[in-house]
Each structure stands twice: as C-alpha cells, then as structure tokens.
C-alpha cells in the first residue's frame, strides 16, 4: 500500500504536472493535473505522452474527478492516475474502482484504515474501470 499512498512531503516531484491547457500547448509535458471543470476527453489523443495524470479533488463532495478517471482508463490510459487533494479514506475503494492507482491526500490517513478500505468489499456487483470481475459473472462462468 505504501507504493500507492503518498504525501507531498514524502517524495520529490518527478513529473511536475501542468494544467490541461498548458499540457495541450506544450509538446514536452508528460504530466497533467485535471481540475474540476476540465474535460478529460481533451487528453485522449495524447495518452501515449502521459506518464502521470493528477486529478484534483478540492472538496470531498466534488465527484467530477471520478468521471475523469474512468474516461481516461476506458480510453486506454495505463500510466499513473493519482487522486490529489481532499481525498478521504472513505473514498479510496470507489476511487480505485474508477481507475485511480495512486493517492496523495492533503491530510495524513491512518494506514490501518486505508488497508481496511481497500479490503472491505471482496466482491463487486458491476463492471468498472478496474479489473475486478463482478459477482454475477463469477456465478455464470
């Protein structure tokens, strides 16, 4: 779990993320930060250039980042997809289902709670951007 949960003070910035507009204007950028209101579909033609996509959650109640993650994963993005900002432990399992594979919350999270959040539901009921097989497919295979 330590490889997917980070805090800004824990590591140097290896790919400084730029805004979506700046990314579209720069041919050498390899990291982008999606803010609420940005259209993730603008990045689809450029997925092979991206090493990192940060999706900002400025407030826990703003769920637009979930859609951005799923759009990118379903379009074939296979690089690091990092949820940043007001990321709460209760959201982690849902974020992972949408395609996030790294998390950088503003506030320190208890690691036991993080592990419990990822392990809470062994089965899922619908397909999502992650690779988990829905329980109905397990029953009928």
TrEMBL record:
<dbReference type="Pfam" id="PF06073">
    <property type="entry name" value="DUF934"/>
</dbReference>
<protein>
    <submittedName>
        <fullName>DUF934 domain-containing protein</fullName>
    </submittedName>
</protein>
<dbReference type="InterPro" id="IPR008318">
    <property type="entry name" value="UCP030820"/>
</dbReference>
